User: Which sequence fits this backbone?
């Protein structure tokens, strides 16, 4: 927290002398401040906090569990915590003092199975189901699922479950070979890992003709590398994402699942203020916000008689010209 002195500058504010809580301050801990989804969540929370005359203290863990634990501990000096947890690596012990001290916590976007708390999510299962059903309705029978975090992150697990549910409803067998994990969140400056993953998919004996990606960043990276590898999208391969980031710098407008991110921030503040006000007790409250499929330019009917692009190239290489 900072304080500004006119004509002097900006300084780190001293902690309250009694070690007590900062009156009216609510903590928001995000995994990152570089993603559009996180910034939109922050905007929604800030709007709701300001409407109630409170202050918002914002921090981000940069996906570092130790840093996240320190930020959670610091939230004990505020009246409540809005936490977008890293996931399985989140230090549960850091949350215990908040619970013991009566500092309520609301999870955003994802939750921890072994921690009882209010939470505000989007319909991960329904959104993934809609995206996968859309691909299946276009005639795709080999649909990959690309993710980058372990399934101990609830949002990743739920989207995988929605993907599998849609396959089952369409009578499409689940193939674990089509579920691939990117090692990290794709970096636009280094798409080599995604390029290798795409080549692996296309080299399968029965390659996919479409992919549902766990978020738009993964979908964008796949779209770029397929273009570089000479695989036309969507005539040869269809791609659907999740998040509804309309302004991503992609060659084509993504088919994606849009979610009400700002509303998620506002709803989390509403739940927290209810705990601080007239409804401090009671079972955990779970809010699931609806999603909406937005069809863009990256999905189309499955190619007829689709074959592996890699396999076709190999075949072309083995053909030798006839000598005359």
Assistant:
């Amino acid at each position: 927290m900072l304080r500004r002195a006119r004509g002097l500058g900006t300084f780190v504010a001293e902690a309250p002398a009694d070690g007590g809580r900062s009156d009216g301050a609510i903590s928001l801990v995000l995994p990152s401040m570089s993603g559009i989804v996180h910034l939109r969540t922050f905007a929604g929370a800030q709007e709701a906090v300001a409407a109630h005359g409170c202050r918002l203290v914002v921090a981000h863990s940069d996906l570092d569990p130790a840093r996240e634990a320190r930020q959670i501990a610091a939230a004990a000096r505020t009246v409540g915590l809005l936490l977008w947890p890293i996931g399985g690596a989140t230090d549960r012990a850091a949350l215990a003092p908040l619970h013991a001290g009566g500092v309520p916590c609301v999870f955003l976007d994802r939750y921890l199975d072994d921690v009882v708390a209010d939470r505000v999510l989007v319909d991960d299962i329904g959104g993934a189901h809609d995206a996968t059903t859309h691909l299946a309705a276009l005639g795709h029978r080999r649909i990959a699922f690309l993710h980058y975090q372990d399934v101990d992150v609830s949002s990743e697990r739920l989207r995988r479950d929605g993907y599998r549910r849609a396959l089952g409803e369409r009578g499409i067998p689940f193939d674990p070979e089509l579920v691939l994990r990117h090692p990290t969140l794709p970096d636009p400056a280094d798409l080599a890992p995604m390029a290798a993953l795409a080549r692996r998919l296309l080299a399968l004996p029965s390659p996919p003709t479409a992919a549902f990606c766990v978020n738009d960043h993964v979908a964008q990276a796949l779209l770029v590398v397929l273009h570089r590898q000479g695989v036309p999208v969507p005539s040869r391969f269809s791609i659907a994402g999740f998040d509804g980031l309309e302004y991503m710098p992609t060659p084509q407008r993504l088919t994606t699942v849009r979610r009400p991110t700002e509303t998620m921030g506002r709803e989390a503040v509403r739940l927290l203020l209810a705990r601080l006000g007239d409804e401090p007790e009671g079972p955990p409250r779970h809010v699931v916000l609806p999603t909406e499929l937005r069809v863009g330019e990256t999905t189309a009917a499955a190619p007829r008689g689709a074959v592996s692009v890699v396999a076709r190239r190999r075949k072309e290489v083995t053909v030798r010209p006839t000598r005359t």
